[in-house]
Amino acid sequence: MKKLMLVLLPLVITACTTQADKDFVRQPQHYGLYIATVNVQADTGIMVKNAQTGEMLTLKVTHQLHDDLGYVSQSLPAGHYLLEYYSPDGVPTDITPLETLDGYFDVQDGCFNYGGHYEFSVDASGKASYADTTSLKDIEALPENIRRQAVGHDICSAAMGEANQRLAASDAAAQLSL
Q1: Alpha-carbon distances, residue 163 vs 13, 33, 102, 174 (angstroms)
Q2: pLDDT value of residue 10
Q3: Pick from 2, 67, 96, 101: CA 20 to 30 A from residue 60's CA?
Q4: Beta-sheet strands, E only, within the chain
């Protein structure tokens, strides 16, 4: 029976891990888990560029609670990321550039990096714009399958245009109900 449990336990842990967070679970010394909510109403992508490597990555926006709120939950290598484009309607050929001075965020390895909530819109000149609000207490309102990934991990504030700040797992557990 013990041998069976030793074989099944890794399979159960892997089954509970989404594709997007596998690198974070397997290699936390190199990856952080980046989490954000967005007001985009379609399952779509937000393209970011790793400032150190120049690599373009797509953050996948999905909808889980049958409402207009989209969720990003993705393992990213630790680093500095620049927002480049997004597709407001999920059509890959319909991409909109995002150009602002504070259009960046940082990801720390081994950390649940909370980017807050992005509110995308169009400004008076017709250009795409966005605002980002971040409150670590908002982590408590995330869907359970995302929120549980913060348990036992340091939590980092990966707010747009701000330096990433790390909160030790023990301090986070005292401040948040996960």
Answers
A1: 33, 17, 11, 23
A2: 35
A3: 101
A4: 31-38, 44-50, 56-62, 70-77, 79-86, 96-97, 104-107, 111-122, 128-133, 154-157, 165-167
**Residue 14 identity:** T
Q: Name the 3-class secondary structure at 34.
A: strand
Comparing 13-27, 50-64, 125-139, the range with the smallest average pLDDT is 13-27
Which are the contacts of 5, defined by CB distance < 8 A and separation ≥ 6? Answer: none
Residues near 102 by Cβ (< 8 Å), separated by ≥ 6? Answer: 160, 161, 162
Q: 25 by DSSP, 3-state: which?
A: helix
Contact 64, 141 (CB under 8 A): no
Which positions ≥6 away from 125 have C-beta within 8 Å?
none
How far lies 33's CA from each of 97, 112, 148, 177, in Å? 24, 5, 12, 19
| Choice between 71 and 100, residue whose per-residue pLDDT is larger | 71
Whole-angstrom Cα distance, residue 136 to residue 26?
25
pLDDT band, very low/low/confident/very high, at 14 (cuts 50, 70, 90):
very low
Residue 168 banded pLDDT, cuts 50, 70, 90? very high
